[in-house]
TrEMBL record:
Family, similarity comment: Belongs to the archaeal Rpo11/eukaryotic RPB11/RPC19 RNA polymerase subunit family.
Chief place of localization: nucleus
InterPro entries, per the entry: RBP11-like (IPR036603), RBP11-like_dimer (IPR009025), RNA_pol_Rpb11_13-16kDa_CS (IPR008193), RNAP_AC19 (IPR033898), Rpo11-like (IPR022905)
Protein name per Swiss-Prot or TrEMBL: DNA-directed RNA polymerases I and III subunit RPAC2
One Pfam family matching this protein: RNA_pol_L_2
Domain of life: Eukaryota
Ranges of residues in domain DNA-directed RNA polymerase RBP11-like dimerisation: 8-81
Assigned keywords, A-Z: DNA-directed RNA polymerase, Nucleus, Transcription
MF terms in GO: DNA binding; DNA-directed RNA polymerase activity; protein dimerization activity
CC per GO annotation: nuclear DNA-directed RNA polymerase complex; RNA polymerase I complex; RNA polymerase III complex
Gene Ontology annotations of biological process type: transcription by RNA polymerase III; transcription elongation by RNA polymerase I
CDD domains in the record: RNAP_I_III_AC19 (cd07029)
Amino acid sequence: GTHGDPTAMTFCFKEEDHTLGNALRHVINKNRDVDFCGYSIPHPSEAKMNVRIQTTDNTNAIDALKTGLQDLYDMVAHVRQAYVEDLEKKEYVEFEEIA
């Protein structure tokens, strides 16, 4: 729910870990309207990750999360496109595996 202050919220992601947590924390913290973003894994045996976001009054935590997710998606799409373009040039060396 959205009880209380919309500029300070914690979001729980199920079946996620440090891979998404650290990347998302990084891109959200680049937003100048974000005062704080951090994540935690409550317990290693639980498959969930919590992301805490605190923003200025210029935005709210939900919009900061949406923007961060979109920014991360765009970044990954750019890296993928650059990788595929380089791969299609076939300017790489192939090695045979030694058994």
